[in-house]
Automatic annotation (TrEMBL):
This is Two-component system sensor histidine kinase UhpB. It comes from the Bacteria. Its main location: membrane. Residues 388-414 are annotated as: Disordered. SMART domains: HATPase_c. PANTHER family: NITRATE/NITRITE SENSOR PROTEIN NARX-RELATED (PTHR24421), SIGNAL TRANSDUCTION HISTIDINE-PROTEIN KINASE_PHOSPHATASE UHPB (PTHR24421:SF58). Residues 158-210 form the HAMP domain. Its EC number is 2.7.13.3. GO terms for molecular function: protein histidine kinase activity. It is found in: Membrane.
Length: 478
């Protein structure tokens, strides 16, 4: 059943209920009125009857009382045959209505001189007929009014529900990607609030669509750039190395096939050894280059170790390379269990964030201390990399990428620039974090950390919702 039909049925039900309750109230009042009228009429008849008995005029006096035309009253002598059911010429009500009112004649007997017994009868028929006439007129008025109301209700309900059709049209436009939703609310405050909410949702969907398109273009650019870089390295370095191996191998083959004397044999052996050493050196270069390309494509540690251990190995590797810097890695046991259960995309993003941030800190900040902290709070992972170098003075800039609807003030620091992984610098990190529904904030360290970090320095903080986090938690990451 449509909403319009439901509202019309509800209006009809209300009319029936109002008519029913009104009828019940009127019948109850009619009962009381009839009883009071009969009691009053009986008292009046008693007074008149006693006065007539005192006068002792007999049957002629009783007939005179009846000729007075007193409403509801009838005077008879006990034992007489004339006992009409109702006064002549009075209107009558249906039997079922009379029974519903519960009215019946009331009688009082008065004893007079000479054994005369006067019967005073109060009959309700005229009063019941009057009530029936009033209720019939009222019922007719209610019926006509209800019919007019029901006839005009579809038009009124249709006009009241007209804004909903505009809502439906607007939502259909949203479903096909047209986000230009506007609605004035038709003067109804509730509809205005609903329209503003849908308009705000449309604006967010439009922003998200443009952001997704931008991220898609950025992803294609990064992929193309990565492929060009790998192709260049393979062509320039791997191709040259393989050509050198081919040249050296061809020379060794020719030397091994040619005739040589005693002196020539010694010279040939020396050249063969030199060529073999060149091939070994080239093979070592090719191996290093292949490892470098593989690390850029995917860190091998993530395939061999859990995320917490991979981060520990990454920080430990830098600690071995830079022993003069104080390194701190803070990952609690409970946090490590949470991290190791993350999905593949989140593990790779967390690892790349720490990797890129450490490279930037060492390349630009010249720190004496570097701290990496990983925590899991309220269904989200929070990664913080802080250093005490001069690369980013406290409060000089913030880069916050929190997704559509989140604040995004941007003031990039000149001390953080060149990415260690092509396509995954500051902008690459922000885009990947945003794609996962998180936020990336880069700012000054603001007074240091619990590890004794001095004032100044740079702090990179990433907040990423965990897969089991609810949608509401993911929206509150920033």
């Amino acid at each position: 059943m449509t909403l319009k039909l439901r509202m019309l049925a509800l209006i009809g039900l209300f009319l029936v209920m109002i008519a029913g309750v009104g009828g019940m109230v009127m019948i109850a009042n009619a009962r009381d009125a009839v009883r009071a009228e009969m009691a009053s009429a009986l008292e009046l008849g008693t007074v008149l009857g006693r006065a007539e008995l005192v006068r002792a005029t007999g049957p002629d006096g009783i007939a005179a009382l009846n000729r007075l035309g007193l409403r509801h009253l009838r005077f008879t002598v006990a034992g007489s045959r004339e006992e009409p059911a109702a006064p002549a010429g009075t209107a009558s009500a249906p039997d079922w209505f009379t029974a519903l009112i519960g009215a019946s004649p009331q009688e009082r007997r008065l004893d007079g001189a000479g054994g005369l017994v006067l019967r005073v009868v109060a009959e309700p028929w005229d009063e019941v007929a009057e009530v029936w006439e009033d209720m019939s007129d009222l019922a007719l008025a209610v019926l006509v009014t209800g019919a007019l109301l029901l006839a005009s209700a579809p038009l009124a309900v249709g006009r009241a529900l007209a804004p909903l059709s505009r809502f439906e049209t607007g939502l259909e436009r949203l479903s096909v990607g047209r986000y230009d939703f506007t609605f004035d609310g038709a003067g109804v405050p509730e509809l205005k609030r609903l329209g503003r909410g849908i308009a705000a949702l449309a604006a967010k969907l439009s922003a998200a669509k443009h952001e997704n398109r931008r991220l898609g273009q950025r992803l294609v650019e990064v992929q193309d750039g990565e492929r060009r870089e790998i192709a260049r390295e393979i062509h320039d370095e791997l191709g040259a190395a393989l050509f050198a191996v081919k040249v050296d191998a061809g020379r060794i083959l020719r030397l091994s096939e040619g005739p040589t004397g005693a002196v020539g044999a010694a010279g040939t052996a020396s050249e063969v050894a030199e060529r073999a050493r060149s091939i070994l050196a080239t093979a070592a270069d090719v191996h290093r280059m292949s490892r470098r390309i593989l690390v850029r494509l995917r860190p091998a540690l993530l395939d061999q170790l859990p995320l917490s251990e991979a981060l520990a190995e990454l920080v430990g590797d830098w600690a071995r390379r830079q022993p003069d810097i104080g390194w701190t890695l803070d990952i609690g046991p409970d946090v490590a269990a949470e991290l190791d259960g993350c999905d593949e995309v989140l593990r790779l993003t967390a690892y790349r964030l720490v990797q890129e941030s450490l490279v930037n800190a060492l390349r630009h900040a010249t720190p004496s201390r570097v701290e990496v902290r990983v925590a899991v709070l309220a269904g989200r992972m929070e990664i913080s990399i802080a250093d005490d170098g001069p690369g980013h003075a406290a409060g000089t800039g913030v880069r916050d990428s929190g997704g559509p609807g989140m604040p995004s003030p941007v003031m990039s620091s000149p001390a953080i620039s060149t990415p260690a992984v092509p396509g995954f610098g500051i902008s690459g990190m922000a885009e990947r974090v945003q794609a996962l529904g998180g936020a990336l904030i880069i700012a000054g360290a603001d007074g240091g950390t619990a590890a004794g970090m001095g004032a100044g320095g740079t702090r990179v903080t990433a907040r990423l919702p965990l897969p089991q986090a609810s949608a509401a938690q993911a929206e509150q990451v920033a």
